[in-house]
Amino acid sequence: MPHSTAADLITPSSPLEEDSELPDAPPHALDVKEEREGDNQKELEIGVPVREDLKPDIKLEDLFDDVDDEDEEFPSSGATTGMVESSPPAVPIALAPSAKYTDPEVMLAFYQRLFPFRYLFQWLNHSIKPSNDFGHREFAFTLQNDAYLRYQSYPTGDLLRKDVLRVNPSRFEIGPVYTAPPRDRKTLRKSTAFRPMAKELVFDIDLTDYDEIRTCCSKANICHKCWSFVTMAIKVVDTALREDFGFQHIMWVYSGRRGAHAWISDKRARIMDDQRRKALAGYLEVVKGGAQSGKKVNVKRPLHPHLARSLDILKDHFQHDILEDQDPWAEPEKAERLLQLLPDKALNDALRKKWDAAPGRSSASKWADIDSLAKAGASKTLDGRLLLEAKQDIVLEYTYPRLDVEVSKKQIHLLKSPFVIHPGTGRVCVPIDTRRLTKFDPLGVPTVTELLGEIDDFDGQDLKEEDEGKKIQDYEKTSLKPYVDYFRTYVASLLKDEKGLKRERIDDDAMEF
Amino acid sequence: MIRQDYNRIDPKRRSTLDHKKKQFAIPTYKQQEYPHRLNLYEVPPTAEITLEQFEQWAIDRLRILAELEACSFRNKTPAETAAHITPLLQKWLPLHSNTSSSAGAQDESLKLERQKDHYSHFILRLAFSSTEDLRRRFARIECALFKLRFQNDDARERQAFVESLQLDWEVVSEDEKRSLATNLANATPGLKQKEVEEGGWFKVDFETVPELVESRRVFLKAGKAYVPVKEQMTMVLAGFNERLEKGLELAARAFPRLDEDDRLTPILNHLSKNFATPDSTLSDSDSALSGATINAASIDGLSQHFPLCMRNLHMTLRKNSHLKHFGRLQYTLFLKGIGLNLEDCLIFWRQAFKLITDDTFNKEYRYNVRHAYGDVGGDAIRRGRGYSPFSCQKILTEHPPGNGETHGCPYRHFSIDNLTTLLQTTGVNDRDVLRGVKEDVEKKRYHIACNRVFEFAYKDDIKRVKEDKSWGAAELDTIVHPNSYFKRAYMLSTGAKAGAGESRGDAMEL
Ligand SMILES: [Zn+2]
Question: Where is the signal peptide (chain B) (predicted)?
Answer without folding.
Answer: none
